[in-house]
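Table 4 source record.
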Amino acid sequence: MKIFKKIILILIIIIVGLFLYLLVGSTEPAENIKWGITFSREYASSFELDWQKMFLSILDDLKVKNFRLVAYWDEIEKEKGKYDFSDLDWQINEVSKRGGEITLAIGKRLPRWPECHDPEWLKNEAKEIQDQKLFDYIKITVNRYKNNQNIKIWQIENEPFLRTFGICPKLDKKVLDQEIALVRELDFIPPEVGQARPIMITESGEFSTWIGGARRADIVGTSIYRTIYGKLGYVTYPIPAIFYHRKSNLIKLFFKDLKIISSEVQAEPWGNVPVTQMTNEQRDKSMSFEKFNQNIDYAIRTGIDELYLWGVEWWYWQKTKGDDRYWNRAKELFK
C-alpha cells in the first residue's frame, strides 16, 4: 500500500510539474517571422465574389509570398476518372510567376468545413475502392506538380487526428501511412542530388499531443486559436502563449529533427452561422479588430517563427464592404 501511495505521489508531482512547465512563464517573441496565408478557392467562392480577382489582390496588394493551397479532391475529380486541375493550376502558376512559396495540401480531409472533401460519387464505393481512388488522386496530383520548384512542402490530410471536428469517417491510420509513403516515393530525390520536399502533418494546437504527426512527418503544423464557438457557446482558451513554445520543446526531445510551424492562426470570426450572415455583435465575440491584433501579438509571443494566418478571404470581403482595417493590418505584416 505504501508503494502504491508513493507511485501516486510521484505521478501527481510529475503532472503538476508538467502543468507548471507548460503554462507558467514567458518566452522571447519570434523575430524575422515568415508570414503566410491559407487560401481556399471553395471558401472564397462562398462570398459570391470573383475569387481570381481576390487571389490577385492577395498577391499584388497584400504582397503575400507564402501560401498554403488546397488540392480539393471534390473539385478536381467531380466525375469519376475525369480530372480537372484548371483552378489549382491557375493559383499555382500565379504564385510561381511572382516567386512565391507553396505548401500544397492533398488528401481527403483538407482545410475548411466540412473538413472531408471527397467527391460525391465516392460514397457509393466500397472501402477498398475508396482507398484506391484516394491513392490514384494523390498520385496524379503529385506527379502533376512535383517538378514545380515553388512547391516546397506536401501537406498530407488536415488535422487527421482531430476527431471532434468535421464531418469525416474515423481515421484509418494505415491509409494515412500509405498516403505518406506514396508521396515520398513519387517525389523521391536521391540524397546526392538534393533534399527531398518535407511532409507536413497538421495538428490541433490545443487538443493534441502532436505525437501522431511527429512520428510520421518532417513538419508539424499546429493551429493557434483563441476564441471558438461550440456546444458551450463562445469559449476563450485560458492558454498562455508560452504553452506552444514549451510544447514544441517537449516534442523535440523525442523527435530532434522535427520542425514546428503554425499552419493556422485564427484571424477570422467563428460562430454558429457563416460569417456572411453574422451581425457585427456576433462577429466581434470571436474576431473584433481588437481581437485580431491580440491574436497576431499572441502568435508572435509563442516563439514560432513561421505563421500562416487563417481568414484572408474574409478580410477581402470585409474590405469590399468598406471595412479595410483587417486587410491593411495584415498588409503591414507582409511588407
